[in-house]
Amino acid sequence: xxxxxxxxxxxxxxxxxxxxxxxxxxxxxxxxxxxxxxxxxxxxxxxxxxxxxxxxxxxxxxxxxxxxxxxxxxxxxxxxxxxxxxxxxxxxxxxxxxxxxxxxxxxxxxxxxxxxxxxxxxxxxxxxxxxxxxxxxxxxxxxxxxxxxxxxxxxxxxxxxxxxxxxxxxxxxxxxxxxxxxxxxxxxxxxxxxxxxxxxxxxxxxx
Length: 207
Hints:
Blueprint: E1 4-8, H1 19-26, E2 31-34, H2 45-60, E3 77-82, H3 84-91, E4 98-104, E5 116-122, H4 128-138, E6 143-148, H5 164-177, E7 198-204
Parallel strand pairs: 1-2, 1-3, 3-4, 4-5, 5-6
Antiparallel strand pairs: 6-7
């Protein structure tokens, strides 16, 4: 079974900006659906609606004739996005199909989440970093806030996601596919995201 990812890009971006990173996610067995251009600011309802429409569409393909029929992990979807897309990913996280949220350099957001959440930020994302902290502080589900040393807001547009890409892959493989080989990225005092080039790992509602 293949878990769907709905991905929201940054404001005014075509999702193709992130093709290298998203193609890598697909190589791990995920079905990636990019939303149309998100033109609203952080928290805009229209942004969230575009992502929700994309998620609902791919879920419907599990029952429709075609190459996805009967092959989708419909209750283990990933809501993911960058910047304003990362904000909307959190807002969409209460959708019944969403098992985990990945907010990449997103802004302040909250929702009635029922799964887990990974947030990524960077020490040079001087605007986004405190907003991600606010989202973390409001979260009531198992959440990991990962801070990459030296990363600015636009970091994931470099080299197909840079150091953030393998961290996101590990998160999805653990929480979606129960891949125990990815567990050491997040658990324990010596976890992968607890060491350089990462710093100040924050976990809450964690067991």
